[in-house]
Structures are given as structure tokens and as C-alpha cells.
Amino acid sequence: MSIHFVIFSFFISRSPEQVSERGCFFLVELLRSDFYYDLPEELIAQTPIEPRSASRMMCIDRGSGEIQHRHFYELGELLREGDLLVMNDSRVIPARLYGEKIPTGSFIEFLLLEQKGEKLWEIICRPGKKAKPGVEFSFGGGRLRAVVEEVKDDGNRIVRFSCDGNFYTALEEVGQMPLPPYIKEKLENKERYQTVYSRELGSAAAPTAGLHFTDEMLCELRSKGIKTAFVTLHVGLGTFRPVKEENVLEHKMHSEHYFLPQETADLINETKRNGGRVIAVGTTTCRTLESVASFYGSISAREGYTDIFIYPGYDFKCIDGLITNFHLPESTLIMLVSAFMGYDRTMAAYREAVAQRYRFFSFGDCMTII
Predict the structure, then answer these.
(1) What is the pLDDT of residues 240-254, one digit of tens each?
(2) Residues 41, 134 within the same domain
(3) Does pTM top 0.70 for this prediction?
């Protein structure tokens, strides 16, 4: 692994309201290719497993590196009374729209990225040459209409939607789930790309580590004295953005909006005081908690934007455990896992997962690191 010379530890921020940590340790070189692994295409899960909790679970002892092969419904056997599971309750919006240009009827595709105001959204569209300022589009036979207000420097558009009634109701009727590009199968039930506890609309992709929970399983865990709490981080499509720079430290992370409520902050601090473990369900939850802890020095109720980039050398300040799916080679997510578990153990675990025929990515199996 080509990591050279740790210099020092600090973070940068534009303001307390817009957190912008770049990671806590700056290295001279960290190569993207160090995080590559061979993955047979047939191991990329195309459909969700039923029931949700039947997914396989690789259990890894963070201290010793020992690996066990279990199923997700056995998670309670790994947890202790007083532990706290923190989950991301963001809900995926059906952000992909297919429509037509007015009045020509020519095809257009929108992908909603981020809400900028009342029915005002930043979007990606194709073909982009059709979407000039002032041009109007129709979706679902006119159920939704949109007019382009601005073309940004990066090619994204700012569009204003109009509809009769509630915008999100109309979006549910005409939009489609923005499944990752590696999923080719049609999703028969939209709710299978939502966690059972999702409630805050705003994500363009699911926080997939939480897809394995069922309501019954959460009730069972709580009955054993395992606490649950929620944060919100609206997952952007930047989560699928590949790292293009060979030197990882030159990669610019996307920014995402998060909210950590007072109730969750209190539960985390209480768990820590009582000797319990804080276990992040998913990398989005991890990034939220570590953003707040890194910037503010402690866990407290906060809201803002984060583009924290966690890679080997980062000093974790909040979480004691992590539940996460298996991620793409050379992605920022496998780098985060490597920071938490150690590079050698992470890459060995991925090789083991391939050898044991685990299912990978959004609809795939998971690992629990405690």
C-alpha cells in the first residue's frame, strides 16, 4: 500500500453551518489502485433478498481481525445491552423523470440532485443540448412541468417545477427510483429501495446498510436493551462518483446535507458515559457523526453540509462499530472502511467475501465491524 509520510492533523471549514472537513490526516500519497480488488460481475446483486434480514453478514472483530460468517438476523448476538445503533432515516425520492420537451415532444431525462427552494431543483439532464434557459418540459402527461432557469458551469441545470397539488405527491406518481448504474434488473417494489425506518425525503440513493433491517428485528433488538437513534444525511449521487485521481488526496468529495437531532446527541453521549458502544449503520451515518465530532470537538445537535473524506490515517472520534455493505473497488467508501478496520484487514475481508460468494453493493450482503 503506497501511503507515504503522515504530516499533521487538522481540518478546514468554511463556516460552522457548512462543515467542510477534508479528513484529519494529510498524507503525501495514497494511491487509488491500492483499493482495487477483482469482483466477478455475477456477484453484483441485482435484486433484493427476501426477507430483508436473510442477507449474509460477515462479522469482523476490529481488534483481532477474526472473521465469522453469519446472517443479518443474528446481529443481536453480536451486540450488548446498552449499545446504540445510529441509523440514517433519509428517504429516497423517485428522482428519475422521463418526459418531453414542449412543444416538440422530443425525449428528455431529468435526474434530481438537490432541492434549492420551493419546487426549485438542481438536476442532471440528457440530452443536455435541449435544456436551455426558458425551455419547458412535461412529465407524466403534464402531471409535472418544469422550466429551465439556469445552466451551471458544470453543466447541471436549475429548474423550477409546477404541478397541481403537492410536488412530492406528483413526483411519487411519475418518478422512478434512481437505482445505481450497476443494477440492470427492474425493481418491482419501490419500497425495497427504502429502509423500513425512512421518513425524511431528500436522498437520491438509499443508505443501503439499513436495507437489511425489518420492523420485527428492530423491536427484538430494543427488547434486549439495544438502543436506536437517527440522523439524517441526504445521500447525493456523488456517492457513486468514481475516484479518478491516482493520488487519492487530490479527490474532491461531494457535499451532502445532514441533521443530527438533540435526542440522538443525548443518546450518544449517554451511551459513551455508560460504557456502551456507538455503532453506525452505514457510511452515511458514520460520515455524519464523524463530521460533527471532528468539527465541533464533541457530539451535539447540529445541521449543515459535510464533504468529509475519511481514508486511512483518520482518527475516529465517535463510532465504535460499523455496519456496511460491500463497496465498489477504488471507491471512497472502501477507503472509509479501510480507515476504520485497517487497510490489510479490509482488503483481506473483501478477498474472503469474493471467495465465499457474498452478494455485493446496494442489494447485496453486509459486514459488521465491532
Answers:
(1) 678 999 999 999 898
(2) no
(3) yes
